[in-house]
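Hey, I'm writing a tutorial for new members on how sequence and structure tokens pair up, and I'd like a real worked example in the thread rather than a made-up one. If someone can provide the structure for the chain below, I'll link this post from the tutorial.
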Amino acid sequence: MTSPFVSELRVGGDVITLGGGDGAVLHLRVQCAELWDAVRVDAPGSTSFSAVKDAALAWFFPNGIHSGEFVAKVRGFEILNESDSLDACGIRDGSTILLARRRRRAVR
């Protein structure tokens, strides 16, 4: 199976690989709105959504950040139960996950 177009759209050469490689792998694009940056994540559908979010945040912010500060949206809707698997959240191969701060920060 070839990877979808979204895995090549404005992402660097880095790929975050999650899971043991058993079953079909979903090729996702995780975008951080604050940084205007994106990373590709390859994970099986049985992976929890929170694992994908935490891995992407660790890539975007290597010095550490609390994942509760960020809201994750897919197709414009917030993922409310992040402990569900990617399949249960309705995430398909080629989906884009948008990470944005939960509270707006003041500009100084």
